[in-house]
Every structure is written in C-alpha cells, then in structure tokens.
TrEMBL record:
Provenance organism: Methanobacterium formicicum
Protein name: DUF2206 domain-containing protein
Keywords linked to the UniProt accession: Membrane, Transmembrane, Transmembrane helix
Alphabetical list of Pfam families matching this protein: DUF2206
Membrane-spanning parts: 17-36, 42-60, 72-95, 101-122, 143-163, 169-190, 202-222, 251-268, 275-296, 308-341, 353-370, 376-393, 405-430, 469-490, 502-521, 533-549, 561-585
Length: 706
C-alpha cells in the first residue's frame, strides 16, 4: 500500500511538489507546537513567508515569467497574504476566541494553506518543475566569485554591529562599508565576466547588509517612528486581537503592517518583538530595490539597471528605513505595483489581480504612502481611457472610448470606501488635516519655517559644517543628473518613447511635478518629509538619473564615460548617506560606527535606560512622566503608555507641581537635552525645573526625579 502511494506521488512533478510542501507544513507545525529551538524560529518565518505566496502564484497563469520575478512575487504575495489573512481571522473570531493566540492562528493557517495546496494541485497537475519555477542555471563560462562575494556583506554587518554594541569596535563595520563601493567597481570593470544573476543578487545583499547595519545597532529598536510602531504592535500582541474599536483614533494602530503582520510572526516564530522589527523587516526592505531592479531591467541592460537600483539603496532614508517600517512595507507594494503595470511577461488577467492585491496591501500598510502612490498611479492606470478621449474630443472618426482597467479602478475605490469608511477613518482625517494645514500655510505666505530642513539644504540654507556641505553637493548633483535625464527625454521624446512605456515616462513627469510642489508649496515637505517622497519617487526617477549621465557622455562623445560619472556620483552619495565624510573629516557623527557620534547619542538605546523606565513602570506611578524630545522612546520600551508621557517640559521650560522627570544617557553624561528632535540645548539652562525635586532612581544611564 505504501509503495503504491509513493509511486502515485512520484508520478508527476506537481505531486512531488505538493507532497514536499505538505511535509514542510507538518515539520513547521511540529516545530511550533513543540517549541523546538532554532527550528521554530526558522521554519515559522521561512515557511509562512514563502509558501502562501507560491501557492497563490501557482493559481495564476504565470508559468512563463522568469524565476527571479517568481521569487520576488512569492515573498511579496506571502506578506500580503498574512496581512489580509490576519484581518479576516480577526473579524471571524471577534473577541470570543482571541485570534492571535497560537492554536486558532496555526489551525486557521493550516486549513487555508491545505485548501490552496489542493486547488494548486488540481490546476497544475500536468506541469513539470521547469514550468513551475522556470529555473535556468547556465554559468556560460562566467565568474561565480562575483556572485558569491556579496554574501559576505550581511555577515560582516551582523558581526560588525555585535562588536560595536559590545566593545565599541568599529573596524568590521568600516571594512564592510569600504568593500561595497570596491565591489561595485569590480562588478563594472569585470561586467563581461559577471553572470546575469550576479546583479540582482548583489543589489539584494547590499540592501540587506545596510538595513541590518541600521537594525542591529543597539540591542533595541533603532529610529524615531519605529517606537510608536512597536508600541501598537505590543498592544495587538498582548491582547491577541486587533481592537480597531478601542484604538480607532490611533492612525498608527490601523496600519496592519505594524500590528497584525508582526503579531503573526511573533506568535508563530516566538522571536522577540524587537528582533522582528530588526531582522524580518530588514529582509522585507531588501526586496524593495530588487523590485526596482526588475522594473529598470526592462528598459536598461543589467549593469545600468543595477546602478539605477543602487541609487535607491544608497539613499540615507533607505538605510535608516527600519525606523519607519510601515512605510517600508507600503513602499514594497508600491514598487511592486509599478513593476506589475509595465511587465509584459504577465498576462492582462494576472496583471489586474496582482495590481489589485499590491494596491490593497499598500493601503492597509501605510496611509500617506498610499495617498501619494494612488495620486500618481491612477492617471497611469487610466492611460488607455485618457488616450481614447483625445480622438473623441477632437471629433475624429475613431470615437470609441477605451474603458480598459476601469474594473481595477472600481475595485480599488470600493476597497478604499470600506477601509476608510469602516476601519481607518482617522487615517483619512489625518490626510484631510494635512491638506488644511497646507492651505492655511499657503494663504499665510512662504516662510523658511514652512519647509523641511532637507528642502532648504538643497539651496544651501542651514549648512552646519563642511561634511554637511559635501552631503548637500552630492545630493544636488544627483538632482541635477535627474533634471538632465528629464531634459534628454523631453528633447528626444520619440527615441525614448520607443525604449520606454509611455506610462512610465508619464510617471517620471508626474513625480517631477510632485517634487517641485514639495519645494514650492509651504508645509508639504514638512508634513511628509522630502527624503521620504524622494525615495518613493525613485522607482520612476532613478532611470532619469541614468539617462541624464548617459546623455552627458554622448554629448562628450565618450559613451563609457557614463559608467564613470554614475559610479562617482553613487559612491559620493554612499559616502554621505553612511556619514563617512564626517569620519574622514574627524567629526564623530554616525550612529553605527562612531561611539561618540552625535546621531548615536540620539538613536542608540542602552539596556540600562530601559531598566530605569521599567523600574518606573513597575512602581505603578499615577502621575505624568516628563522627559525631553527623545526620552519618550526609552520610556515606551519600558512599558509606559505614551499618553502618560509628556515631551513639553524642556520645550515650555516651566516648573511642574507634580510628576516625575526621566533623564536618559545623553542628558546625564553629556549634559544635553533635546527640546525637540535634532534641537539641542545645555541642561544647565533648565536647572529651575529640578528645584524641589530629588533623585529616586539612578543607574548611571537613566535617572528619575520625583
């Protein structure tokens, strides 16, 4: 009997695959239920980040698309699946059974995955492994070492951050940072020796290394917004339920990317919540430039597509993006939507399905990213309709209006009505509030205060030092190259129209207009952040950067010069984004490898700082806790609710009759307080605030006054 079953299973590749996945499911379940160390962490993450997406993908007629595209779509669809599955599970059980406890979560996941396996088997039973994966591995006498080397970079990031955290030994981190531009140079010099898989592998591993560098610095989460994100995750995780009613006024809480998604990972894998935000989100973020590379590879050769993707990776906001994980997830789905729109290997039916999933996932991940993305994507999606209006309005013979993609638009808007109308009304209100601020600020006139500091820096306003000036120059040169690319596309429109989709060119123009608006219109850059919008725009503008420098090389009649120009600008940008120019100048600045760096003081969180916050929390205090513009991060990690914390003490500089004052490392050891983020003052200016108060706790890194 067993022999017959084995023969039947081995009869075709689809049987073998489904049986293998079933065995993996059983192994994953056992490792989770028995809490087997390492296996639970690895399988709990790997299985549920790959298999659901692969099964969904297998249901679509996408067998002809290349292996790498399938891999990226597999990961992205799995992440989207977990968020939507979590939403459905949450409202299926309601509060009668806590949905995000182990048994209901794992049982429900098993049922869904088994159902997907059955449907996939019936649909694909006649397909071979080659058809399912479309795997090609022909080295073609190419060098394998160029593909293997970047594996070293994430390893160096892990070792380097560990040594820096424990011993303040920065050599390994610096070696990694120096190796990245050296490796890129080698890849360009020996491009004829490089296998075609080298470029996507390199872009992924460089991205992962830089994200891990940021994420693994300190034993705790690292950044600004991420502390609020971690707090809402803790609420969902502790309640084992996404309580949208109680938290309806919290826009952060309504982002499923930082509530439901990490909760599912935490329950399944038993990984500490902070390390989910440090490592799993680093992997998710590393997919963003990879999706960009796949998009660019449609219009450029692999080496130029690689360089265009590096422009994204070398952005300071991307390197620090684990400080805003909800946007990182939303950015993945925005980039994915752009890739899907313009990839010709995907059939029209599959394109629509994947596009809807991507946009929906983006909407529930981060509201402001979705607002910007939809504003720019909708005209591109509606392009067939808009084109058909031209002959109609001109009263030409061909008056037929093309309603292509209207079904996509209807489903997107229907979802938005449900999402914002039923669940996330506060997110819509936040968007409306921002528009009101912009309107009132515009009416009041243009002032420097209404601009983000990074926008002012473009014009050289607010330069603080020579390294700061170098950073401004590097970024301005990148902007100038993009402008040259736009000019080249405009002057040679017919030429580039043959090379690029009209919709993609339209996206370039739309994002340029958006960036101009960010500069001109008051408060826009301040509310959203110029680095944030620029990173989002690079899915369209990075090709313009390459085109701009290509056009310069053509003008000088030296075609290969473009590689040199691109490389020099990218390395300059990389140096500035990783603060190496400060290091060479002798000014401690980096949060990652300078123990006395200014940013390290702001971002790095010591265990003792958390211990002080935990002590205060365990004391069951019933009064307000006062701290400076950064100290609240430490208090929140110590378990103190944000509504019990005030950051106005040093900003208002007024004494308080009752309450506690929490001081953290920089306050104590450097005598500095942050009245607001990035605004320092000497603590001696605030001695009056401590009159009549006495120290009730002090561990050297945190101090509490009563």
């Amino acid at each position: 009997m067993i022999t017959e079953i084995i023969k039947k299973i081995s009869s075709n590749d689809a049987n073998k695959l489904i049986f293998t996945l079933f065995c993996l499911l059983i192994a994953t379940d056992l490792s989770i239920f028995l809490n087997i160390p390492i296996l639970r962490e690895v399988l709990g993450v790997v299985f549920f980040t790959t298999v659901p997406g692969f099964l969904i993908l297998s249901l679509l007629p996408l067998h002809k698309i290349k292996f790498l595209k399938k891999i990226v779509l597999t990961f992205a669809l799995s992440i989207a699946f977990l968020m939507f599955f979590g939403l459905g599970l949450n409202f299926l059980y309601l509060v009668n059974i806590k949905p995000f406890t182990l048994v209901p979560l794992l049982v429900s996941l098993n049922l869904i995955i088994l159902a997907l396996m059955l449907i996939s088997f019936k649909k694909n039973k006649n397909l071979t492994f080659d058809q399912l994966f479309n795997w090609e591995m022909n080295l073609e006498n190419k060098s394998i070492s160029l593909a293997i080397f970047p594996i070293l970079l994430p390893i160096l990031a892990i070792i380097g951050t560990f040594l820096m955290n424990k011993m303040e030994y920065n050599f390994i981190i610096l070696v990694m940072l120096f190796l990245i531009p050296i490796y890129v140079a080698c890849l360009l010099i020996f491009k004829n020796k490089a296998h075609h898989s080298t470029y996507p592998l390199a872009i992924w591993l460089i991205s992962l290394a830089l994200l891990l560098l940021n994420g693994l610095t300190s034993n705790h989460i690292f950044g600004i917004d991420v502390h609020h994100e971690y707090a809402v995750f803790n609420i969902t995780f502790s309640q084992a339920f996404w309580d949208v009613v109680t938290n309806a006024s919290n826009a952060y809480y309504l982002c499923t990317s930082i509530t439901i998604l990490p909760t599912i990972y935490a329950v399944l894998s038993n990984i500490n919540g902070e390390y989910i935000f440090k490592t799993i989100y680093a992997f998710i973020g590393s997919l963003v430039p990879l999706v960009a590379y796949l998009t660019f590879n449609k219009y450029f050769k692999k080496d130029k597509a690689f360089l265009a993707a590096l422009l994204i990776v070398f952005q300071n906001f991307f390197i620090l993006s684990l400080g805003c994980t909800r946007q990182l997830v939303a950015l993945l789905f925005f980039f994915l939507a752009v890739f899907i729109l313009f990839d010709k290997e995907i059939s029209d039916k599959s394109r629509k399905i994947l596009l809807i999933i991507s946009v929906w996932a983006m909407i529930i991940s981060h509201y402001s990213t979705a607002y910007v993305a939809l504003t720019l994507l909708l005209p591109i999606i509606l392009l067939p309709f808009l084109k058909s209006l031209v002959p109609y309005l001109k009263n030409l013979k061909n008056k037929k209006i093309n309603f292509q993609n209207f079904d996509v638009i209807v489903l997107i808007f229907a979802f938005m009505v449900v999402w914002y109308g039923v669940f996330a009304g506060i997110q819509l209100a936040a968007g409306s509030g921002s528009m009101e601020q912009i309107s009132s600020s515009t009416a009041s006139g243009i002032t420097a205060d209404s601009r983000d500091a990074s926008v002012l820096a473009i014009f050289g306003i607010g330069v603080k030092s020579l390294p700061n000036l170098m950073s401004i120059i590097a970024n301005d040169l990148v902007f100038f190259a993009i402008f040259l690319g736009l000019l080249g596309i405009t002057l040679k429109f017919k030429y580039y129209r043959k090379k690029m989709d009209f919709g993609f060119i339209l996206g370039i123009y739309l994002f340029i207009l958006l960036l101009i608006m960010f500069i001109i219109v008051p408060m826009v850059s301040k509310l959203y952040g110029a680095p944030r919008i620029f990173l989002q725009s690079l899915i369209f503008l990075a090709p313009a950067f390459i085109i701009g420098l290509d056009e310069v090389a053509k003008l000088l009649r030296k075609v290969n010069l473009s590689y040199v120009l691109i490389f020099v600008l990218l390395v300059s940008l990389f140096s500035c984004s990783t603060y190496l120019q400060y290091y060479f100048y002798g000014t401690p600045y980096s949060p990652h490898y300078d123990s006395n760096g200014k940013l390290r003081g702001e971002y790095f969180i010591y265990d003792q700082e958390i211990m002080g916050a935990q002590w205060l929390n365990n004391s069951k205090i019933d009064q307000k806790i006062y701290t400076d513009g950064i100290g609240h991060q430490r208090l929140m990690l110590g378990g103190i609710q944000f509504n019990n914390i005030s950051q106005q003490l040093f900003l208002d500089n007024k004494t308080i009759p009752h309450g506690y004052i929490y001081e953290w490392n920089v306050n104590i050891k450097k005598g500095i307080v942050y009245t607001q983020l990035e605004e320092e003052e000497n603590i001696t200016n605030f001695r009056n605030l401590f009159i009549g108060k006495f120290i009730i706790y002090d561990n050297g890194y945190s101090r509490i006054w009563d």
